[in-house]
Amino acid sequence: xxxxxxxxxxxxxxxxxxxxxxxxxxxxxxxxxxxxxxxxxxxxxxxxxxxxxxxxxxxxxxxxxxxxxxxxxxxxxxxxxxxxxxxxxxxxxxxxxxxxxxxxxxxxxxxxxxxxxxxxxxxxxxxxxxxxxxxxxxxxxxxxxxxxxxxxxxxxxxxxxxxxxxxxxxx
Length: 171
What we know:
Elements: H1 2-24, H2 26-30, E1 44-45, H3 52-59, E2 64-66, H4 74-79, E3 90-91, E4 111-119, E5 122-129, E6 135-144, E7 148-157, E8 162-164, E9 168-170
Parallel strand pairs: 1-7, 3-4
Antiparallel strand pairs: 2-4, 4-5, 5-6, 6-7, 8-9
């Protein structure tokens, strides 16, 4: 009877220890912990930005809507790829990403594509960015074969934008 009681106590203690370890995330690091994502490669940013009429002119035209990060122009994909690596720093729509500042898995992107548009040497990217608060970002890029990619304008949108066929992204 004494052996059964000791065995039962040992089993309860083992389960309590495993539960405590799982709640603190230690098991994740002992098991299949992935390498954290690295930093993004640098993007040249025009500090002056562009005016409202220039933004409207940028969006003029029939953009091809893109909902897959890898379908963006190569230079833009490289801007959202970790420096010196091959992993994307942006998830596709409906994929998991870290939406808050409580990071559960540092190998999961902190940004997620909502939609993008491509027309000749112009590209806009609308995405969610996790952090202290979830942000909706709209960024305009100029893509050139020689000059690479230039970030022309970037802003935090007040909410997720929708697609309007006549004017591009709209509120």
